[in-house]
Design brief:
single chain; five-stranded antiparallel beta sheet; three-stranded antiparallel beta sheet; disordered N terminus; signal; transmembrane; MscS_beta-dom_sf; MS_channel_1st
Length: 811
Amino acid sequence: MSTIVTFLRACLFALIAFSPALSWAADDDASQQTAEAPAKLNAAVELPKMQKVLDKIKQQVSGETNDSKLSALNEMAQELSGDADTLVQAITPQRAQLQAQLDVLGPPPKPESGVKETSEVTSKRKNLQNQKAKIDDQISQAEAIKSGATNLSTQIVSLRRDALKTQLALNAGSIFGPRFWSPLYNSQSNDNEKVKGFLDELADTAVLAWQPDWRMGTVVWIVLAGLVATFGRRYMEEFLAWVGIHRLPEGRLRRSFLAAAIALTTLAAVVLAFNFLNLAFTRHPDVTDDVRAFADKLVGLSIFCGLIAGLGRAFLSTRRPSWRLPTISNEVALALKPFPPLMAGLVFVFQALENLNSSANTSVATTVMANGITALLIGAAALSISFRTNRVRRKLALEGAQPEAKSTLVGLIQMAITLTGVAIMVALVIGYVTLARFLSYELVWAGIVCGSFYILSHLVADASESLFSTSNATGKGIQRSLNIDERHLSQVAALLGALGKTVLVLIAAIALLNGTFSSATPIELVQKAIEFWGGKGLESLNIVPAHVLNALLCLIVGIYVLRSARRWLDQDFLPKTTMDTGMRVSLITLFSNLGYVLVILLALSVMGLQWNKLAWIVSALSVGIGFGLQEIVKNFISGLILLTERPVKVGDLVSISGIEGDIRRINVRATEIQLGDKSTVIVPNSQFISQNVRNATMGNAQGVATITLTFPLDIDPVKVRQLLLDVYVDNERILDTPEPSVTFKDLTPAGIVLSVTGNVTSPRQVSGAKSDLLFDILTRLRKEGIVLSTPQTMIVEQRNGQKVVVQDGEA
């Protein structure tokens, strides 16, 4: 036994004695290999360089919007990721070698074991551990750089994909070129793997929803979605139609209510169905966040698709042609019936495809191809709508049927649809896919906004008119409760209808200004409208092409609204008031002048012009006013005074500077006066303020018809006086109050001068009344044998060298 123990101790001593030599040999081999690796790729040198490149790419990406530069930065990020991976692969064997050496040395002996190792072994183990820790740190840094470069590349691709929606001048290749279809045969792209991976996530979501514990709920939600989309929509629409027929008063309100009901029921059915499907497949807690986000985007997209289908069904109303709101023939409506659901389906499919590309993080080329196909199909659908409508109308004309009367606005809309479709096709052919995609979705968005505005504006106007109409129970109740005149009720109805249309125009304008599918709810549109009109758009002077386009659109909408409001005041509201014609014209003119000023200022603010930076404009205008514009400004201010103080108004008979006529128009600079021969004199407004003006019709003045006649001295004054009074009393134009009168004016050598006076209702009737009176007076005087005094003329003749005065009539 003692012999065996002695042998084991000898072996252990020999192992301890030879282990430093073995370690040193291993250290020499490892040092030689470690020395060879840095010669190929020195991690200590390369890692700081890679980190600087990564930081530089991040800085450039943060403020870059150009697609070509973003593409170059993406290539740099991908190259950096590859270099970092190469470095990791290069230094990983070194770590493995160091770990093998440490395994040979083993862990340090425990103190209680009684075994001691030499200082050389301890120093070598510590050196190897330090080298291994350093390499581990380098591998961690390289992995972090690789991960950062990969994430940065993903972000750049996402930025490029988002920038495609705004970079309209980017040429991505014609749809007939190989560049456009390159994602289909490009083997270097990993889009197929990305899409397949995301589709696998969707498949896993369906599997989770079909698990035994969740299967029944999934079936219930799917069945509910199908029932809501079919029977629910139909029966809800029938119910609202019954309400419109049996509960609403007769009139236009029924048609507008039914159109709105059709659009809303279709929208509600589509949105509810998609929400039920979302609950059916994504309610499981193990569903990934990417799938939930994708499903939520589809639910939001269903709002717009439901609006497209609902508005199309409401406009065409093929089931109830007599209730159709716009003037469209039944043949045209039936021809256009397939297009609303087709357009809704195209928008849903390709918007879902865009969301899929975004969720799967596919390449920009794949996104461009999807956008091009989307624009191609939407543009083709737009052209098909226009061509099919024209073909049906031509067919009706050839058959002898009378097509519907197409207004100018309808013709402009159809022309805009056609031109937009042609522009989409041309943009796709020459390679501007982003522009084509923008035009296609702007066309759809403009259709949604304008269609909603058309139906809601009719609904608001008809509801206001029906609510305050005295032929309905509500109007009668309001009239009895407030004890007001029917005319006032009609004024309130007109005001409410105009106010509602104004709000709708505001929301529609903001919706169009904010672009395609930018606001999902009317509440957000109203909030943006309040912020916009509240002045937040006036904070900085930042004139860019997009702002100029918005300003032009705002100017067009503002002028349209202003003209509509002026027409509404002139034709609907003011005629129902007690204002006279002149007051109405003056009020409309003042409203128009102020409205145009506000519209122009609003357009400047939308363009980005700051009010606090207009000092130089005001200074320039001050100099101009001081030199050359003072007359224009004086006439402009005088025109405002004429419209507000109203010393003269449209329709007055005035006399100024020897000019007498009727005022036909008070403009900003001058006033138009129409003379008796229908010619027009333009008088500057300042003359009405600085000169004496005779207003013959101011204050409802009456006209005075005065005739002065001279009779011989031998007439019977009483008889003549009664004759003249009888002529005035018998004339229908002469007023009874005040009564006509005959005045003894003068007694001259020529005879007795009598003046006959009578009043007429207006100064404009004086000339005609005097003509009729003179005809009647002369006829009666001749009948009674009374003659007028003959004027006496004195002639001075030279007879026998003397001047002799001879009366007229003497020999």
